[in-house]
């Protein structure tokens, strides 16, 4: 069954702990935590102290941390100490990936690599054997609630095929524009093994139902 990872970017930050508890009780697998620095993307979200608090409140929750920041290497250790389980950086980052991915592992985290809608899927191929997760963006990173870019579907199937050919099995996650009943099942059919969804979960009238529907995507 596909992993469901609600993105807290669309949660009510005044009640972040309760919002996370609610989605986890509804069957969500991981909490997706979007860090933005106003440089790599044109938005600022939240960072280390918020992750620390959330991890303290929910120590068992798997924290899937997505770094949309200009210099992720500088912050790897601090995000690991704050409670990250998966630490995903962008292939478009200026920091050297051959240094960053081993640094993530050295801190005891699982390493993820993300690619923007305009980046060809082959950009991540050289790193595949160092990754526990690939995060295919279905939107330009920076904001929740944008429409799904269908180029993500072709990338997911290319990744599924390339991983099968090489005997690798990283989590294939998709982030942005993922909606129950429409783009979510399409992503799963294309090879996604994890779904990140922000607005579709936290803006839903019935949040637990939205999580369950995503979980049942086939
Ligand atoms: C976008 C973030 C996403 C975002 C997805 O920069 O990485 O995780 O929250 O939001 P939705 O699901 O609303 O497209
Ligand atoms: Zn994200």
What does the main sheet amount to? 8 strands, parallel
Strand content: 15-25%
Q: Which sequence of strands runs across the widest sheet? A: 1-8-7-6-5-4-3-2
Give the oligomer, counting copies of the same chain as homo and different chains as hetero: single chain
The shape is globular
The ordered string of helix (H) and strand (E) elements is EHEHEHEHEEHEHEHH
Please give the domain count.
1
Question: pLDDT below 50 for ≥5 consecutive residues: which ranges?
Answer: none
Instruction: Enter the CATH topology name.
Output: TIM Barrel
Helix proportion = 25-40%
**CATH class (first level) name:** Alpha Beta
How many helix segments?
Answer: 8
Radius of gyration: 16 Å
C-alpha termini separation = 8 Å
Written description of the protein model:
The chain has 218 residues and is α/β, with parallel strands linked by helices. It has one domain (3-215): TIM Barrel (Alpha-Beta Barrel), CATH 3.20.20. The protein has helices spanning 16-25, 48-57, 72-82, 97-106, 151-166, 183-190, 199-202, 207-215, and strands at residues 3-6, 30-36, 62-68, 86-90, 110-115, 133-137, 171-175, 194-197. Helix 2 (48-57) runs parallel beside helix 3 and helix 3 (72-82) packs parallel to helix 4. The radius of gyration is 16 Å and the shape is globular. The mean pLDDT is 97. D-xylitol-5-phosphate is lined by residues 7, 9-10, 32, 34, 66, 139, 141-142, 144-146, 175-178, 196-200.
């Amino acid at each position: 069954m596909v992993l469901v990872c609600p993105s807290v970017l669309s949660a009510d930050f005044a009640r972040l702990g309760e919002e996370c508890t609610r989605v986890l009780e509804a069957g969500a697998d991981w909490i997706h935590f979007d860090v933005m620095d106003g440089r790599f993307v044109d938005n600022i979200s939240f960072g280390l102290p918020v992750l620390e608090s959330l991890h303290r409140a929910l120590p068992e929750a798997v924290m899937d941390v997505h770094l949309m920041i200009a210099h992720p290497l500088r912050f790897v250790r601090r995000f690991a100490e704050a409670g990250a389980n998966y630490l995903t950086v962008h292939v478009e980052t200026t920091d050297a990936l051959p240094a960053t991915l081993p640094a993530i592992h050295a801190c005891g985290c699982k390493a993820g690599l993300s690619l923007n809608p305009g980046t060809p899927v082959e950009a991540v191929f050289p790193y595949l054997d160092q990754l526990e997760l690939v995060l295919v963006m279905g939107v330009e990173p920076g904001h929740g609630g944008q429409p799904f870019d269908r180029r993500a579907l072709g990338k997911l199937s290319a990744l599924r095929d390339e991983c099968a050919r090489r005997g690798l099995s990283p989590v294939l996650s998709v982030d942005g524009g993922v909606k129950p009943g429409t783009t979510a099942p399409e992503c799963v059919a294309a090879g996604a093994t994890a779904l990140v969804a922000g607005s579709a979960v936290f803006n839903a009238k019935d949040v637990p139902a939205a999580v369950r529907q995503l979980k049942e995507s086939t």
